[in-house]
Design a protein that fits this description.
This protein is of the alpha/beta class. It is about 40% helix and about 15% strand. It has 11 helices and 9 strands. Helix 3 links the parallel strand 1 and strand 2.
């Protein structure tokens, strides 16, 4: 009985995705993030003497740095691992790398992987809780959580919000996590994308760009050129003309509407340079909100 209880406890503390997470659990993370954001003392001793490994097998700036700031604000000791400067370059497997760090005494691991479907297998093979920092085009749960937190701060509640996700959906883990999580709260989620950037396996309605501009939230996605085997549009200018958040399109938004983007931003492709920090943009607010969200998630993993 004890072994079974421990296994369930570990599974509950990991954060692999939002698709199968209960609404109440998501709410508890959002509420705890609000608690951490309200704290005036920048560094806590909540996780003093805990060791966390940030294991990034794919490049990252915002997510990796945000997690590190969150962990240090909680008082944890942080080990940053990057595949390019490791034995992965010599052929070591992801599993052996994770087990190596766990064997050195890590209490939890934050992990980003290129392939989808590997993370769940890893989580079943290790004893420390794992937090998904993005796995392929599967999920990016903490990004969706900070997106929801940003929307909730803006609108008060998520129920009834009309959210349009625009762009490179087929490669987007952000689009998937937001779709699955926002629907649990009664938000109306639509996608807008060129035919060759759609994810046909997802049960979602695709709308035109003109329809997307009528939404409460317009979330622009980065065109992930590094994942495209072939050019999916002739030129950046062509994509901007058809699907970019240009100055002209931004001027058509409802007064209360906000513009979001998970970043990094291809300026003047999916969003005009002048729009990135316009009064309706919340892109840098999303980045700020990522810290308390990840504080809540890391605390949950080690509670």
């Amino acid at each position: 009985m004890v072994a079974v209880h421990m296994e369930r406890s570990l599974k509950d503390r990991s954060l692999l995705g939002l698709k199968d997470m209960d609404r109440s659990e998501i709410e508890s993370i959002l509420d705890r993030a609000a608690y951490w954001e309200a704290q005036t003392v920048k560094v806590s001793d909540k996780l003093q003497h805990k060791f966390i490994a940030n294991m990034f097998f794919e490049n990252s700036t915002r997510t990796r740095c945000s997690f590190e700031v969150a962990q240090k604000r909680l008082g944890a000791e942080v080990i940053n691992f990057t595949a390019a400067a490791s034995s992965v370059e010599k052929g070591e497997s992801v599993y052996d790398t994770v087990r190596t760090l766990e064997s050195m005494g890590m209490d939890a691991g934050v992990i980003r992987l290129k392939p989808a479907g590997v993370l769940e297998q890893l989580a079943a093979q290790v004893k420390m809780p794992l937090i998904n920092a993005g796995d392929g085009n599967n999920e990016h749960p903490t990004q969706a959580l900070l997106d929801m937190y940003t929307m909730k701060k803006q609108f008060g509640e998520l129920k009834g919000l009309r959210v349009a996700v625009v762009g490179d959906v087929v490669h987007s883990r952000v689009a998937r996590s937001n779709l699955w999580a926002l629907r649990k709260f009664g938000a109306e989620v639509h996608f807008c994308a060129p035919a060759n950037m759609r994810a046909d396996e997802l049960d979602v309605n695709y709308i035109t760009m003109d329809e997307a501009l009528k939404s409460d939230v317009v979330m622009m996605l980065r065109v992930q050129l590094e994942r495209h085997e072939h050019n999916m549009f002739s030129t950046p200018e062509e994509y901007r003309s058809a699907y970019g958040m240009t100055i002209e399109r931004a001027s058509q938004l409802q007064e209360h509407a906000i513009i979001m983007h998970p970043a990094p931003v291809n300026r003047n492709v999916e969003i005009d340079d002048a729009v990135v920090e316009c009064k309706q943009a919340r892109i840098f607010d999303q980045m700020s909100n990522g810290v308390p969200i990840r504080m809540a998630v890391v605390e949950r993993a080690l509670s």
